[in-house]
């Protein structure tokens, strides 16, 4: 990696982390947390009709995060934080590469 690429990549990660704050899953997606917990441990929330709908089964997000949560037994916040960091890493590495190619 060249210096310009590392600079653009690092700058993107720093700015996105500053924007991220301390909540990797912002208020618009925090309603999924009960779905993650319910998918990982089906005995939680017994008889709750919110899980009878198809909202959380319509995407692969709840099964993916719920399975990771069940397997690794980390705190859900840590799983969401490192998942967000991985997505940002992949996003900004591609963005930095495209910017570097366009500039050269």
Present the secondary structure layout.
Elements: H1 3-20, H2 33-40, H3 61-72, H4 76-103
Task: Give a description of the structure.
There is one protein chain. The protein has helices at residues 3-20, 33-40, 61-72, 76-103. Helices cover 63% and strands 0% of the residues. The chain contains 4 helices and no strands. The longest helix is centred in the C-terminal third of the chain and has 28 residues, at 76-103. The chain has 104 residues and is mainly α.
Report the span from N to C terminus: 14 Å
Query: Approximately how much beta-strand content do the residues carry?
Result: under 5%
Instruction: Determine the number of helices (DSSP H or I, runs of at least 4 residues).
Output: 4
Mean pLDDT: 76
What's the main sheet like?
Answer: none
Evaluate the radius of gyration.
Answer: 18 Å
Shape: elongated
Question: Based on the structure, what is the oligomeric state of the protein chains?
Answer: single chain
Helix content: 55-70%
Q: How do the helices and strands follow one another from N- to C-terminus?
A: HHHH
Q: Tell me the structural class.
A: mainly alpha
Give the uncertain stretches in residue-range form: none
Number of β-strand runs: 0
């Amino acid at each position: 990696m060249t210096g310009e690429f590392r600079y653009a990549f690092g700058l993107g990660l720093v700015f996105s982390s500053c924007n991220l704050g301390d909540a990797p899953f912002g208020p618009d997606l925090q309603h999924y947390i009960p779905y993650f917990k319910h998918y990982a441990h089906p005995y939680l929330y017994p008889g709750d009709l919110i899980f009878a709908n198809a909202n959380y089964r319509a995407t692969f997000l709840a099964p993916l995060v719920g399975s990771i949560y069940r397997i690794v037994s980390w705190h859900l916040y840590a799983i969401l934080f490192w998942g967000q960091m991985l997505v940002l890493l992949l996003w900004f590495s591609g963005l930095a590469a495209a910017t570097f190619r366009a500039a050269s």
